[in-house]
Design brief:
Length: 191
Protein backbone atom coordinates (compact mmCIF):
# COMPACT_ATOMS: atom_id res chain seq x y z
CA UNK A 1 0.00 0.00 0.00
CA UNK A 2 2.84 2.39 0.80
CA UNK A 3 4.52 1.68 -2.54
CA UNK A 4 1.18 2.18 -4.32
CA UNK A 5 0.69 5.52 -2.54
CA UNK A 6 4.23 6.65 -3.39
CA UNK A 7 3.82 5.75 -7.07
CA UNK A 8 0.46 7.50 -7.29
CA UNK A 9 1.78 10.53 -5.44
CA UNK A 10 4.83 10.84 -7.72
CA UNK A 11 2.69 10.53 -10.85
CA UNK A 12 0.20 13.14 -9.59
CA UNK A 13 2.98 15.51 -8.50
CA UNK A 14 4.65 15.23 -11.90
CA UNK A 15 1.33 15.84 -13.64
CA UNK A 16 0.52 18.88 -11.50
CA UNK A 17 4.00 20.38 -11.88
CA UNK A 18 3.81 19.95 -15.66
CA UNK A 19 0.43 21.78 -15.83
CA UNK A 20 1.94 25.27 -15.87
CA UNK A 21 -1.29 26.96 -17.01
CA UNK A 22 -3.47 25.44 -14.26
CA UNK A 23 -4.66 28.24 -11.97
CA UNK A 24 -5.14 25.69 -9.19
CA UNK A 25 -1.55 24.46 -9.52
CA UNK A 26 -0.32 26.14 -6.27
CA UNK A 27 -3.26 24.67 -4.32
CA UNK A 28 -2.70 21.24 -5.86
CA UNK A 29 1.04 21.33 -5.06
CA UNK A 30 0.28 22.40 -1.48
CA UNK A 31 -2.28 19.59 -1.17
CA UNK A 32 0.13 16.98 -2.54
CA UNK A 33 2.98 18.15 -0.34
CA UNK A 34 0.66 18.04 2.65
CA UNK A 35 -0.42 14.52 1.72
CA UNK A 36 3.23 13.46 1.47
CA UNK A 37 3.77 14.79 5.00
CA UNK A 38 0.56 13.12 6.23
CA UNK A 39 1.64 9.80 4.73
CA UNK A 40 5.03 10.09 6.44
CA UNK A 41 3.23 10.89 9.70
CA UNK A 42 0.90 7.90 9.27
CA UNK A 43 3.87 5.62 8.65
CA UNK A 44 5.55 7.02 11.77
CA UNK A 45 2.29 6.49 13.69
CA UNK A 46 2.19 2.85 12.60
CA UNK A 47 5.45 2.35 14.48
CA UNK A 48 3.58 3.31 17.68
CA UNK A 49 0.82 0.74 17.16
CA UNK A 50 1.14 -2.88 18.22
CA UNK A 51 1.77 -5.11 15.16
CA UNK A 52 -1.19 -7.33 16.09
CA UNK A 53 -3.49 -4.34 15.70
CA UNK A 54 -2.05 -3.29 12.35
CA UNK A 55 -3.04 -6.55 10.67
CA UNK A 56 -6.73 -5.84 11.30
CA UNK A 57 -6.96 -2.98 8.82
CA UNK A 58 -5.86 -2.40 5.25
CA UNK A 59 -2.79 -0.19 4.98
CA UNK A 60 -4.48 1.66 2.11
CA UNK A 61 -7.13 2.89 4.56
CA UNK A 62 -4.43 4.61 6.59
CA UNK A 63 -2.93 6.72 3.82
CA UNK A 64 -4.27 9.90 2.22
CA UNK A 65 -5.95 9.79 -1.19
CA UNK A 66 -4.11 11.65 -3.95
CA UNK A 67 -7.37 12.13 -5.87
CA UNK A 68 -8.42 14.77 -3.33
CA UNK A 69 -5.61 16.98 -4.64
CA UNK A 70 -6.65 16.56 -8.26
CA UNK A 71 -10.32 17.37 -7.65
CA UNK A 72 -11.99 20.53 -8.93
CA UNK A 73 -11.38 22.03 -5.47
CA UNK A 74 -8.16 20.59 -4.01
CA UNK A 75 -8.25 19.65 -0.34
CA UNK A 76 -6.53 22.33 1.76
CA UNK A 77 -3.51 21.22 3.80
CA UNK A 78 -3.69 21.30 7.60
CA UNK A 79 -2.93 24.76 8.89
CA UNK A 80 0.50 25.49 10.27
CA UNK A 81 0.78 27.33 13.58
CA UNK A 82 1.74 31.00 13.28
CA UNK A 83 4.54 30.52 15.82
CA UNK A 84 7.35 28.53 14.14
CA UNK A 85 8.35 27.14 17.56
CA UNK A 86 4.99 25.31 17.69
CA UNK A 87 5.49 23.56 14.33
CA UNK A 88 7.41 20.62 15.83
CA UNK A 89 5.08 20.02 18.78
CA UNK A 90 1.99 20.34 16.54
CA UNK A 91 3.38 17.87 14.02
CA UNK A 92 4.25 15.45 16.86
CA UNK A 93 0.67 15.78 18.16
CA UNK A 94 -0.65 15.01 14.68
CA UNK A 95 1.43 11.81 14.58
CA UNK A 96 0.13 10.83 18.04
CA UNK A 97 -3.46 11.61 16.93
CA UNK A 98 -3.07 9.36 13.91
CA UNK A 99 -1.73 6.55 16.05
CA UNK A 100 -4.56 7.00 18.55
CA UNK A 101 -7.20 6.92 15.82
CA UNK A 102 -5.64 3.78 14.31
CA UNK A 103 -5.70 2.15 17.73
CA UNK A 104 -9.33 3.18 18.25
CA UNK A 105 -10.39 1.83 14.83
CA UNK A 106 -8.92 -1.49 15.94
CA UNK A 107 -10.85 -1.57 19.21
CA UNK A 108 -8.18 -0.21 21.58
CA UNK A 109 -8.86 2.68 23.95
CA UNK A 110 -6.15 5.33 23.44
CA UNK A 111 -5.48 8.09 25.95
CA UNK A 112 -7.55 10.87 24.38
CA UNK A 113 -7.51 12.91 27.59
CA UNK A 114 -3.73 13.33 27.44
CA UNK A 115 -3.85 14.18 23.74
CA UNK A 116 -6.54 16.77 24.42
CA UNK A 117 -4.56 18.32 27.30
CA UNK A 118 -1.40 18.41 25.18
CA UNK A 119 -3.29 20.07 22.32
CA UNK A 120 -4.80 22.63 24.71
CA UNK A 121 -1.32 23.33 26.10
CA UNK A 122 -0.07 24.42 22.66
CA UNK A 123 -2.61 27.25 22.62
CA UNK A 124 -3.13 26.48 18.92
CA UNK A 125 -6.88 25.96 18.47
CA UNK A 126 -6.80 24.10 15.11
CA UNK A 127 -4.78 21.23 16.56
CA UNK A 128 -7.21 21.00 19.49
CA UNK A 129 -10.08 20.80 17.00
CA UNK A 130 -8.22 18.03 15.13
CA UNK A 131 -7.85 16.01 18.36
CA UNK A 132 -11.52 16.51 19.22
CA UNK A 133 -12.60 15.48 15.71
CA UNK A 134 -10.50 12.33 15.74
CA UNK A 135 -11.76 11.45 19.21
CA UNK A 136 -15.32 12.03 17.98
CA UNK A 137 -14.67 9.76 14.98
CA UNK A 138 -13.38 7.06 17.31
CA UNK A 139 -16.47 7.37 19.55
CA UNK A 140 -18.69 7.32 16.44
CA UNK A 141 -17.04 4.11 15.17
CA UNK A 142 -17.44 2.60 18.66
CA UNK A 143 -21.16 3.46 18.43
CA UNK A 144 -20.93 5.84 21.41
CA UNK A 145 -23.15 8.36 19.65
CA UNK A 146 -23.69 10.61 22.68
CA UNK A 147 -19.95 10.83 23.29
CA UNK A 148 -19.33 11.48 19.59
CA UNK A 149 -21.99 14.20 19.48
CA UNK A 150 -20.50 16.00 22.50
CA UNK A 151 -17.03 15.91 20.95
CA UNK A 152 -18.25 17.06 17.52
CA UNK A 153 -20.11 19.94 19.20
CA UNK A 154 -17.06 20.97 21.24
CA UNK A 155 -14.90 20.78 18.10
CA UNK A 156 -17.39 22.97 16.24
CA UNK A 157 -17.38 25.58 19.01
CA UNK A 158 -13.57 25.69 19.24
CA UNK A 159 -13.25 25.86 15.44
CA UNK A 160 -15.84 28.62 15.22
CA UNK A 161 -14.02 30.64 17.89
CA UNK A 162 -10.71 30.14 16.07
CA UNK A 163 -12.22 31.10 12.70
CA UNK A 164 -11.17 27.68 11.34
CA UNK A 165 -13.93 27.26 8.75
CA UNK A 166 -12.75 23.97 7.21
CA UNK A 167 -12.43 22.29 10.61
CA UNK A 168 -15.80 23.70 11.68
CA UNK A 169 -17.32 22.17 8.54
CA UNK A 170 -15.81 18.78 9.44
CA UNK A 171 -17.41 18.99 12.88
CA UNK A 172 -20.78 19.92 11.40
CA UNK A 173 -20.60 17.01 8.95
CA UNK A 174 -19.98 14.67 11.89
CA UNK A 175 -22.98 16.10 13.73
CA UNK A 176 -25.15 15.77 10.60
CA UNK A 177 -24.16 12.13 10.17
CA UNK A 178 -25.11 11.42 13.77
CA UNK A 179 -28.47 13.14 13.33
CA UNK A 180 -29.10 11.17 10.13
CA UNK A 181 -28.22 7.96 11.93
CA UNK A 182 -25.38 7.18 9.55
CA UNK A 183 -22.50 5.00 10.66
CA UNK A 184 -19.16 6.76 10.58
CA UNK A 185 -17.35 6.01 7.31
CA UNK A 186 -13.65 6.99 7.30
CA UNK A 187 -13.70 6.97 3.49
CA UNK A 188 -16.57 9.50 3.35
CA UNK A 189 -14.80 11.63 5.96
CA UNK A 190 -11.78 11.95 3.68
CA UNK A 191 -13.79 13.00 0.63
Amino acid sequence: AVDHFRAGWRAAYGEVCAARGDQLRPARVACLESQRDQANDQIAALAQVAPALITRVAEADLLPHVAACLAATPAPPPSAPPDPQLAGPVRALRVRMSAALMQAYRGADPDWATLTRDAEATGYAPVLVEVLLRHAMARHVAKDLDGAAALYERAELVADGAKAAALRADALIGIAELVQGRAFDPERARA
